[in-house]
Structure formats: C-alpha cells, structure tokens
C-alpha cells in the first residue's frame, strides 16, 4: 500500500457550514430590502443551482469560469424564482451578497483536526471553490492549508477525473498517496475511481435537520470518521480506521 502523503478536502459542507453562513448574510440582506423569505430556504435554493451550473462547464457547453461567477449568476436565478427582478437591485448590492460564500464558518472540529494533520501531511482544499474564495475562507477561519488547489487550478469541476488526478500531480505525489476527504459519497466515489484513498467525515446536519442524503458512508472508503479530529487520529496512527 502506498504511504499517504497528503489529504485534499472538499470544503463546502465538509470543512465549512455553508448553509448557516449563507443564511446569516441573506437574513441581513433581506431585512434591508424588506423581502419576505426564509433565509435558510434562500440558501438552499442558491445551493441547488450549484450542480447544474457546474455541469454546463463539464459538458463543454461553456468555458471554465470560477465558482464566484457561477454563484453570482445563480443568485439572479434564485431572485427571479422568488418573483424579484434582479435588475431592480443595484448590481453592487448583489455582488456584496455574493460574498456570503467567502465568509463561512468552519465546523468546530475542522481547524483543530486539520492543524493536527498538517503536522505530518500536506493539506489543501480539493474543492470546486475558486482560489480567492478559498483564501478568504481560510484567512477568516484560520484554516492552515499548505496550498490552494482544486477546480480553478485545473480549470474543471469535480467530479471530473482531472480535478483529482491533476491535484495529485501538482503535489508531486501519486494518486494513491493522496486521500480525498469529504462528507459526500459521490465525491469519494469519483476520487476512488481515480485511485485516490478516501475518507468520509460525517456531516449529518449540512442541509439542516431534514437532511436525507450523505447521512452515513455508502461505500468502501478507507476511513470513516465523525470529525476531522477523529480522522486525524486515524491518519496519525492514534486510532484505527473504520471501514464501511
């Protein structure tokens, strides 16, 4: 078995709580606009546009653009779906709201666990987020990544194989020496197909109390943990890996 040298993390939902963070900024925004909408429902609607927007890039229907651009376009779609004409709102105001994705809080275990992993392993986001987005999240939350990698560096979105394979190549390690860490089974399935090791970190409240997906590991992942702290213990040899 190849010796693990690095861990790449999915970010939205795995490292940070996107739903609460986006809803927080949406709540402040709609209060100023006198709009009646549940902030969490708004955040969920915004997130639902995420996968279809990236699929257009992966399918070759448009050239690569960063996630900030897709989020901004998707914001217009959400507003339109609520019966609000985005053109009636100053563009600068919507641009500011789009930065909600840059101000997300980490799950409580994320920074301590990643800090422990950093002692021995290369750690970096293997995310669909663009570089500035990842940098802002890291600076605000104190996430100690060694590098910012992922979609914008590769110019493609997960789960395209190039995102996983090129990330390993950029780190000058073999795919089997890189562990993909995610709270999403489909992300891990794609990474495993590329030869990466895989780790499922459970986030049963990513989508709120009514979450029905990704409540548990659904594949034969190399590690299954309830937190980044538990995962760090496994990687550092303090605990034993749990296999599905």
TrEMBL record:
One Gene Ontology molecular-function label: (S)-2-haloacid dehalogenase activity
Catalysed reaction equations from the record: an (S)-2-haloacid + H2O = a (2R)-2-hydroxycarboxylate + a halide anion + H(+)
UniProt-listed CDD domains: HAD_L2-DEX (cd02588)
Keyword field contains Hydrolase: yes
Keywords: Hydrolase
EC number of this enzyme: 3.8.1.2
Pfam family, one: Hydrolase
NCBIfam families xref list: HAD-SF-IA-v2, HAD_type_II
Task performed by this protein: Catalyzes the hydrolytic dehalogenation of small (S)-2-haloalkanoic acids to yield the corresponding (R)-2-hydroxyalkanoic acids.
Family of the protein in this entry: Belongs to the HAD-like hydrolase superfamily. S-2-haloalkanoic acid dehalogenase family.
Protein name from the UniProt record: (S)-2-haloacid dehalogenase
């Amino acid at each position: 078995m190849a010796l693990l040298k690095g861990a790449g993390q999915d970010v939205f939902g795995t490292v940070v709580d996107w739903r609460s963070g986006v809803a927080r900024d949406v709540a402040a925004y709609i209060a100023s606009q006198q709009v009646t909408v549940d902030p969490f429902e708004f955040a969920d609607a915004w997130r639902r546009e995420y996968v279809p927007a990236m699929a257009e890039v992966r399918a070759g229907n448009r050239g690569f653009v960063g996630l900030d651009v897709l989020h901004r376009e998707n914001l217009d779609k959400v507003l339109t779906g609520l019966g609000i004409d985005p053109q009636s709102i100053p563009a600068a105001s919507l641009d500011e709201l789009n930065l909600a994705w840059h101000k997300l809080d980490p799950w409580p275990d994320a920074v301590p666990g990643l800090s422990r992993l950093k002692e021995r392993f290369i750690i970096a986001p293997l995310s669909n987020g663009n570089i500035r987005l990842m940098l802002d999240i890291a600076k605000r939350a104190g996430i100690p990544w060694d590098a910012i990698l992922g979609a914008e560096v590769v110019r493609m979105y997960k789960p395209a194989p190039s995102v996983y394979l090129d990330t390993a190549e950029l780190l000058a390690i073999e795919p089997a020496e890189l562990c993909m860490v995610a709270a999403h089974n489909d992300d891990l399935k794609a990474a495993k197909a590329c030869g990466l090791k895989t780790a499922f970190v459970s986030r049963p409240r990513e989508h709120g109390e009514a979450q029905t997906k990704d409540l548990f590991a659904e594949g034969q992942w190399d590690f299954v943990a309830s937190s980044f702290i538990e995962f760090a213990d496994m990687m550092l040899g303090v605990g034993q890996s749990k296999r599905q």
